[in-house]
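Predict structure. Input: Flagellar basal body rod protein FlgB, 126 residues.
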Amino acid sequence: MAILNLSSIGNLQRALDQTSLSQNVISQNIANIDTPNYKAKKVVFGDVLQSAMTANRTDPRHFEFSNSGQSQIVVDRNSSIQNNGNNVDADEQMTELAKTQLQYQSYTEAISREFNKLNIVLGGGQ
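Output follows.
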């Protein structure tokens, strides 16, 4: 196993970008919870992390990496629609927001560890 893997920093950056996009979409859904005829949106991810990182889930409670190349925002057409034509479920959106916040925190901690390794290799972490 290599002590320093610069590609992992790029992969983690993409994961942070995707998670941030997901948080923005969820926030828009929550902001439009009472907007008539608004349809909830969600982000569909690619296999950016799965193919680029060789992460192994050693515990079922660990985050699972998604499988596809590009992130894409899609309209959720499977949710039940309320009387005003809106299909945003507040509980579901808050749960997804909490989940993405935990993922974002996990990725920031991982990228911080990578930068700490880089700092040590470059002689700054004596």
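The longest strand covers residues 41-44.
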